[in-house]
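Aim 2, interim progress: modelling of the thymidine-5'-triphosphate-bound target.
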Amino acid sequence: MNIVLASASPRRKELLSNLNFDFEIMKSNIEEFVNDKDRPESVAMSLSFQKAIDIANKTSENNIVIGADTIVVLDEKILGKPEDEQDAFNTLAQLSGKYHKVITGVCVLRLSDNKKIVDYEVTKVKMREFSEDEIKRYIKTGEPMDKAGSYAIQGYGSLLVEKINGDYFNVVGLPVSKLGQILYRHFDVNII
Ligand SMILES: Cc1cn([C@H]2C[C@H](O)[C@@H](COP(=O)(O)OP(=O)(O)OP(=O)(O)O)O2)c(=O)[nH]c1=O
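Predicted structure of the complex, ligand included:
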């Protein structure tokens, strides 16, 4: 039995690596389809499941597969990864001075005994007010381009964040504590 992280995200890999247990990485390349009418929590959970099942079907059925998906939500509207720099600018301008939610859906499954747990974690993030000039300078760093909500709290984006309420790691891309509980309670995996 192996644990497989169904993710191309270097952030997720790093967060799991901090726990010093063996796992494999397999990159799922599902088409991320979002229906605007669904609740943001459902969207994040559904995408995490799609990533996990894609990889589960390509690996041993005894493996435990983990999928995750992070979205940023402002006034119930999902702000995903930016399409281009203009899109990143518009997203960051909307986030300035306000609270938003970061939701990460997480799915853990094992086909051999038909086990599937899907859950999510929410973290509230308050941005300080920033100017258009600051947004332009931030975009020039290149950091926003592959991040949900066009920022990275673990990087230069930390300069824009005023405070958070909830799990920091959830914002970076993986609700580590929740995931640990799922592995322990439902899959008998004891990391510590
Ligand atoms: C809000 C925020 C998001 N992010 C990242 C985490 C995710 O990698 C990314 C959201 O995109 P996702 O679609 O969740 O993940 P991904 O495409 O990077 O990787 P994969 O689907 O293969 O698992 O945004 C940060 O790194 N820092 C932040 O502060």
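The two ends are 18 Å apart (CA to CA). The first strand starts at residue 3 and ends at 5.
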